[in-house]
Amino acid sequence: MTRHYNFCAGPAALPTAVLKRARDELLDYHGHGLSVMEMSHRGEDFVAIAERSEVDLRELLAIPDNYRVLFTQGGASLQFAALPYNLLGAGGRANFVHTGIWGKKAISETRHLFGDVHVAASSEENGHSAVPRQQEIVLSADAAYLHYTANETIGGLAFDYIPEAVRPDGTPVPLVCDMSSSILSAPLDVAKFGVIYAGAQKNIGPAGLVVVIVRDDLLDRARDDMPTLFGYRALAEAGSMVNTPATYSWYLAGLVFDWLKQDIGGLTAMAAINARKAARLYAAIDGSGLYANPVTLRNRSRMNVPFVLADPRLERPFLEEAEAAGLLNLKGHRSVGGMRASLYNAVSEAAVEALTDFMADFEKRRG
Question: Where are the N6-(pyridoxal phosphate)lysine modifications (predicted)?
Answer without folding.
Answer: 202
